[in-house]
């Protein structure tokens, strides 16, 4: 697959905020040596230090140093905003402007006019206000700046700028008018048509494929519906790079990390060993494919035990179109391609293989999904759609129980793998 050209070569970069005695200079960038903070020492094995987003100091001098480093590294590609400016454009982070809420903090809509900054066009933006408790929040903020600040692709949300003032950490992104896939897919009444689901799956797959195919591969680590944002024409863009990680180097097969992510989406071998590979993202992608097919969430604690995990519940239905129709999203009302859904289910099945080696690469996944766009056979017109909802084992209550609210208190929201992260 042809990758769009990048504005400049992608290179691993970190900003500096550890104390001077813990630093090593590498070209323009400064390495942070591992600190003794307990949450960092939980890493399974030390990472090359320039990739380690490890921070021991959130003092005023640190934030000043970070700003200097980021300004030097990114130049005019990223804007360094003042907190007062971001307050002004979001009406002091008013709840009326709230776009969403994740484990990281709240996201508010703002509007930048043409006179805001030189070289910055008038546009609506999304401002993420980091809920900074401990180091994790700061690490996530910095990971987003470092990754999204350098990676540019039509299927990645564009980072416009950041703000680092004393203990405040904010991010400014392009505004995505249709919000997250989560908000559309699990809505009670309105539904995403089959062709739109396919378009979203292809866009998100291209985003992941770009990350995995980069010169220095990046593992996204938190692929899920709330992190897939939608443009006005339903182009999918990945956002929320707070957990992204550089892939293994050289002959290494994996990177070893503290296990973080979201239950229901995280690959089983990653949860049990902490070994992270690009195939961990492929597993999560398979889970989202299942969500697109069934309209069910990856993990739903309010369902009967056997139905709580989407992967476990759906696995026996994925191998034949005869069985598959029983778990297809009732909101589609039979308006989906039988052939397309069958092949998407087969792809999902491969993606959620227990052995990571049996999972396809994301580039292959993109091709497979693009081929499904040719199918126009609708289940409703070829008798594949069961007349009675009662015959749809286990799927009949899908319509009534789903809570579309975005928030940490939603019992249907996926739960974090570690307390500090994420919804
Ligand atoms: N650029 C954006 N445009 C519109 N809505 C957004 C944007 N960024 C985030 N959101 C909304 O805010 C929610 C949380 O954002 P996210 O970046 O995932 O935060 P967290 O890191 O806290 O999980 C998203 O699921 C989405 O609903
Ligand atoms: Mg998120």
From TrEMBL:
Keywords of the record: ATP-binding, Cell membrane, Kinase, Membrane, Nucleotide-binding, Serine/threonine-protein kinase, Transferase
Record carries keyword Transmembrane: no
Family: Belongs to the protein kinase superfamily. Ser/Thr protein kinase family.
Predominant cellular place of this UniProt entry's protein: membrane
Residues the record lists as binding ATP: 128
Subcellular locations according to the entry: Cell membrane
UniProt function note: May be involved in plant defense signaling.
Keyword Repressor: no
Biased composition (Basic and acidic residues): 394-404
Protein name: non-specific serine/threonine protein kinase
Domain Protein kinase residues, every copy: 93-372
One Pfam short name: PK_Tyr_Ser-Thr
Record-level GO cellular component terms: plasma membrane
Molecular function terms from GO: ATP binding; protein serine/threonine kinase activity
Enzyme Commission numbers on file: 2.7.11.1
Location of the region described as Disordered in the Swiss-Prot/TrEMBL record: 388-423
InterPro entries: Kinase-like_dom_sf, Plant_Ser_Thr_Prot_Kinase, Prot_kinase_dom, Protein_kinase_ATP_BS, Ser-Thr/Tyr_kinase_cat_dom, Ser/Thr_kinase_AS
């Amino acid at each position: 697959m042809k990758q769009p050209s990048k504005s400049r070569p992608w290179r691993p970069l970190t900003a500096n905020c550890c104390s001077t005695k813990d630093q090593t200079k590498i070209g323009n960038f400064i390495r942070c040596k591992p600190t003794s903070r307990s949450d960092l020492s939980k890493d399974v094995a030390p990472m090359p230090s320039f990739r380690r987003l490890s921070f021991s100091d959130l003092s005023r001098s640190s934030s000043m140093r970070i700003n200097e480093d980021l300004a030097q590294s990114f130049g005019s590609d990223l804007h360094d905003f003042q907190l007062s400016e971001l307050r002004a454009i979001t009406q002091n982070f008013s709840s009326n402007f709230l776009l969403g809420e994740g484990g990281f903090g709240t996201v508010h809509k703002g509007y930048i006019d043409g006179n805001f900054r030189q070289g910055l066009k008038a546009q609506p933006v999304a401002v993420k206000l980091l809920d900074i408790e401990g180091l994790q929040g700061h690490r996530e903020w910095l990971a987003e700046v470092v990754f999204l600040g350098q990676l540019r692709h039509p299927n990645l949300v564009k980072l416009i700028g950041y703000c680092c003032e004393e203990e405040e950490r904010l991010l400014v992104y392009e505004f995505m008018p249709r919000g997250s896939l989560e908000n559309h897919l699990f809505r009670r009444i309105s539904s995403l048509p089959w062709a739109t689901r396919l378009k979203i799956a292809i866009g998100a797959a291209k985003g992941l494929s770009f990350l995995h195919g980069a010169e220095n591969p990046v593992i996204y680590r938190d692929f899920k519906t709330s992190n897939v944002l939608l443009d006005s024409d339903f182009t999918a863009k990945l956002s929320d790079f707070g957990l992204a990680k550089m892939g293994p180097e050289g002959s290494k097969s994996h990177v070893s990390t503290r296990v973080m992510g979201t239950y229901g989406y995280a690959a089983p071998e990653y949860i049990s060993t902490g070994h992270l590979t690009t195939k961990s993202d492929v597993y999560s992608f398979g889970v989202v494919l299942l969500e697109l097919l069934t309209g069910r969430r990856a993990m739903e604690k309010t369902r009967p035990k056997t139905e709580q995990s989407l992967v476990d519940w759906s696995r026996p239905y994925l191998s034949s179109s005869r069985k598959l129709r029983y778990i297809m999203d009732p909101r589609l009302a039979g308006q989906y391609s039988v052939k397309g859904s069958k092949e998407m289910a087969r792809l999902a099945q491969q993606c959620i293989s227990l052995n990571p080696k049996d999972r396809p690469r994301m580039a292959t996944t993109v091709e497979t999904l693009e081929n499904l766009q040719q199918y126009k056979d609708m289940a409703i017109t070829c008798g594949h759609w069961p007349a009675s909802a009662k015959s749809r084992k286990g799927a009949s209550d899908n319509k009534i129980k789903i809570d579309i609210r975005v928030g940490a208190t939603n019992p249907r929201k996926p739960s974090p793998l570690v307390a500090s992260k994420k919804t």
